[in-house]
Write a structure and sequence with these properties.
Elements lengths: L4 H4 L2 H4 L10 H8 L5 E2 L11 H10 L12 H11 L6 E4 L2 H12 L5 E5 L5 H8 L3 E5 L8 H6 L5 E7 L11 H10 L5 E5 L8 H4 L12 E6 L12 E4 L2 H10 L7 H11 L2 H24 L4 E2 L5 E5 L9 H10 L2 E2 L1 E3 L4 E8 L3 H14 L5
Parallel strand pairs: 1-11, 3-4, 3-5, 5-6, 6-7
Antiparallel strand pairs: 2-8, 7-8, 9-10, 10-13, 12-13
Helix pairs in contact: 4-12, 5-12, 6-7
The chain binds pyridoxal-5'-phosphate.
Length: 374
């Protein structure tokens, strides 16, 4: 008799579905036999790797026979200096996804509830289910977090709350006052992860500095990444800033070499490359204006976004047109975007902001696919 391995898996894991990543460019190239594909599907930085990083990595290659620094000292030091925190408040991860999982594994058991908003980042339910905990998805308000409803949904079993600001895939943004009012309502034994993967893209005047709140709310964990505005998605490096005791606990479960040597080097280098960050943000602002105006001109409803992507409603019930059908049609034009049916938004597509010419290609393809006038 053959073994049913699925039955051997943990209950939570049995019901899990693997994360659906954006379609890789090479895959579509093979399928269509064309080469000039535009990928606007995974919120990657369209600027390309910073020159400073390319140079630094070249010099790092010779050392790759050695294990990396298990403490990531230089990167932690650079982050601590930049954000005026102590080095013992920082935890490094193999991308910030690594840390989101680490937090759940370190603090949450199967008897606990983990809360997040409807249409929030899919990694939150995945890490919750993997440990067999109960996921509580609180209905969204105007596509974003309904913080009042979330505060009311806290129970004695709530252990962890994930909040993405700006949120992915909707791009919605929570103002500092609202967030702070929420934190005041959360019991101090409930952890709140503020996932600021798109922090660098958010308007400086409005994004504030939640790191400074840790003194008042020691249960607050700030999570950031080098995958987006810093352009290192392929190298995998993210970090959390928290109370030192939380960092100490994460450090106990963390794999000792979860950040590789190239990732550490690249992250320190790009953190000091202010020009690269400025260029990334400027290019994003330009593209965001361009695509927003395009959607407005064509009467396509979009969600105002503070991230490096924009989510637009392309559905049409008369034509049986959905996000998935438009996604498929755009693929035929060599443009990869992100359908978000899995996020409960079957009529929307999420478009990562690209370079000027990539945005142009997207607009042309969408014009063709939707028979738009312009
Ligand atoms: C992209 C993204 C991340 C970053 O993931 P990495 O593992 O650091 O690449 C985290 N949270 C959200 C909401 C994201 O969209």
């Amino acid at each position: 008799m053959s073994t049913d391995f699925l039955k051997l898996a943990n209950i939570g894991v049995q019901k899990l579905h693997p994360y659906q990543a954006g379609k890789p460019t090479d895959e579509l190239e093979r399928e269509l036999g064309i080469t000039n594909i535009v990928k606007l599907a995974s919120n990657e930085n369209p600027l390309g790797l910073a020159q400073s990083v390319k140079d630094a990595l070249q010099n790092e290659l010779a050392g790759l026979t050695r294990y990396p620094d298990a403490n990531g000292y230089y990167l932690k030091k650079a982050l601590a200096d930049k954000y005026s925190v102590n080095i013992d408040q920082i935890t490094l991860g193999n991308g910030s996804n690594d840390l989101l999982e680490l937090i759940a594994r370190a603090f949450v058991s199967s008897c606990h509830e983990v809360m997040f908003a409807q249409h929030a980042f899919v990694v939150y339910p995945i890490v919750t289910q993997a440990i067999g905990a109960t996921a509580v998805a609180v209905p969204a308000k105007d596509y974003g977090h309904d913080l009042e409803a979330m505060a009311e949904a806290i129970t004695a079993n709530t252990k962890l709350i994930f909040i993405a600001n700006p949120n992915n895939p909707t791009g919605t943004f929570l103002e500092q006052d609202a967030l702070k009012a929420f934190l005041k309502k959360v019991p101090s034994n409930v952890l709140v992860v503020l996932d600021e993967a798109y922090f660098e893209y958010a308007e400086p005047a409005r994004r504030g500095n939640a790191i400074a709140w840790i003194a008042e709310f020691p249960n607050l964990i700030i999570s950031r990444t080098f995958s987006k505005a810093y352009g290192l998605a392929g190298l995998r490096v993210g970090y959390t800033i928290s109370h030192p005791e939380i960092a100490d606990i994460l450090n106990r479960v963390r794999q000792p070499f979860n950040c590789n040597a190239l990732a550490l080097k690249a992250a320190v280098t790009v953190l000091n490359d202010e020009d690269y960050l400025l260029q990334s943000v400027a290019l994003n602002n330009e593209g965001m204006e361009d695509l927003s105006a395009f959607f407005t001109d064509n009467n396509l409803e979009y969600i105002a976004s503070m991230g490096n992507f924009i989510t637009v409603n392309v559905g049409n019930s008369c034509d049986k047109r959905t996000g998935d059908s438009v996604y498929q049609a755009l693929l035929q034009e060599g443009v990869i975007v992100r359908p978000i049916t899995g996020y409960g938004l079957p009529n929307h597509l999420r478009i990562s902001i690209g370079t000027h010419s990539e945005n142009q290609r997207f607009k042309e393809a969408l014009t063709k696919v939707l028979n738009l006038e312009s």
